[in-house]
Design brief:
The chain contains two helices and four strands, in the order H-E-E-E-H-E. The protein has 118 residues and is α+β, with helices and mostly antiparallel strands. Strand 2 (37-44) and strand 3 (47-55) form a beta hairpin. The two termini are 28 Å apart.
Length: 118
């Protein structure tokens, strides 16, 4: 196995990674679930480096899960935060996992990568 592959495997094994989500929003700030992307980054000495990125639909993410993840990504970026937070609940544990249109990003640590598949 190549040195880069071994170093990457070691970073993943030591938990030096994060799962990021990106989602587009419409003009009203509503997340668009069909635009959801997942990105895995690893931490190196100079910061975070992208390892892989994929759209939600080819990964087999259900429409319901994509809506849920898009909503939480928007909330983490301050969009759609209700006055009363008691009804928010928490993100699904099944995957443990102003102005014009834009792109939002959020970070969520999850359990090891092999268990964060859909």
């Amino acid at each position: 196995m190549a040195p880069v592959a071994l170093a990457t495997a070691d970073l993943l094994d030591r938990g030096k990674w994060r799962l990021m989500t990106d989602v587009n929003v419409d003009r009203d700030g509503e997340p668009l679930p069909d635009s959801l992307w997942y990105r895995v980054e690893v931490e190196v000495s100079t910061g975070w480096v992208e390892l892989v990125e994929a759209r939600a639909s080819p990964l087999g993410v259900s429409e319901e899960s994509a809506r849920d993840e898009a909503k939480w990504t928007a909330l983490q970026n301050g969009l759609g935060v209700p006055d009363d937070l008691s009804g928010l609940g928490s993100p699904s544990r099944d995957r443990e996992s102003e102005g014009g249109p834009g792109r939002l990003a959020a970070s969520r640590r999850v359990l090891p990568l092999r268990t964060s598949c859909y």
